[in-house]
């Protein structure tokens, strides 16, 4: 890992997170939001990839020290997450990045995967300082973003064979955002499964789609966070 664990202030106390900086120490800032497994090495590596691409990237530890490789435990931890504390932690992460000496953007980007995808949209709807939102197959039954409050454009990536977030759900999200007058671009990859971006899970990983989504994400953040 190239980054380091840091502690930042939250209205719920303090929160730890993994922070990765570009070689120059300066760049636009993005928040990377974990899957239901927790703040595992895969999420930290995504932060490192953002840093290599010129971004300051912070992944807050929303489980506060817990992580797992067990689907049963992951489901339990996802459903047990305290939404109010999570909202405060996300707000704290936004403020930490905006006040970071190396930050060059007036707003921050959010990107998340699975549970984190829904939290990415939730954060964007809850914080006007979020200037760009990326949602990879986001899901959490207890997290309901306030779309009316959303100011950031949304980029979404979903999978045709995803039983957790089927194409119908992705299309409904797109319709809801457009009906509310929001800027949105949704991509549904054919013959892809949930978590197709996760290269630590060979049973679902799709390299070509993951690379395409990554390129689109970088382009999106570079465009929206430079404004």
TrEMBL record:
<protein>
    <submittedName>
        <fullName>Dienelactone hydrolase</fullName>
    </submittedName>
</protein>
<feature type="domain" description="Dienelactone hydrolase">
    <location>
        <begin position="16"/>
        <end position="224"/>
    </location>
</feature>
<dbReference type="InterPro" id="IPR029058">
    <property type="entry name" value="AB_hydrolase_fold"/>
</dbReference>
<dbReference type="GO" id="GO:0016787">
    <property type="term" value="F:hydrolase activity"/>
</dbReference>
<dbReference type="InterPro" id="IPR002925">
    <property type="entry name" value="Dienelactn_hydro"/>
</dbReference>
<dbReference type="Pfam" id="PF01738">
    <property type="entry name" value="DLH"/>
</dbReference>
<keyword id="KW-0378">Hydrolase</keyword>
<dbReference type="InterPro" id="IPR051049">
    <property type="entry name" value="Dienelactone_hydrolase-like"/>
</dbReference>
């Amino acid at each position: 890992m190239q980054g380091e664990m840091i502690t930042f202030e939250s209205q719920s106390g303090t929160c730890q997170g993994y922070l990765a900086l570009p070689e120059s120490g300066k760049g636009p800032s993005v928040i990377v939001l974990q899957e239901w497994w927790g703040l595992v090495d895969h999420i930290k590596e995504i932060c490192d990839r953002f840093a290599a691409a010129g971004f300051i990237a912070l992944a807050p530890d929303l489980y506060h020290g817990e992580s797992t490789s067990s689907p049963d435990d992951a489901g339990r931890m996802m459903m047990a997450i305290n939404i109010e504390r999570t909202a405060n932690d996300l707000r704290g992460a936004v403020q930490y990045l905006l006040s970071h000496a190396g930050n060059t953007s007036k707003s921050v980007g959010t990107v998340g995967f699975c549970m984190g995808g829904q939290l990415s949209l939730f954060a964007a709807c809850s914080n006007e300082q979020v200037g760009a939102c990326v949602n990879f197959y986001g899901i959490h039954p207890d997290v309901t973003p306030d779309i009316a409050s959303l100011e950031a454009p949304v980029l979404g990536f979903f999978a045709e064979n995803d039983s957790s977030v089927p194409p119908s759900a992705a299309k409904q999200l797109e319709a809801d955002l457009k009906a509310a007058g929001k800027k949105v671009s949704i991509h549904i990859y054919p013959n892809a499964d949930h978590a197709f971006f996760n290269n630590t899970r060979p049973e679902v990983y799709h390299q070509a789609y993951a690379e395409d989504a990554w390129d689109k994400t970088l382009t999106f953040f570079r465009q929206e966070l430079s404004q």
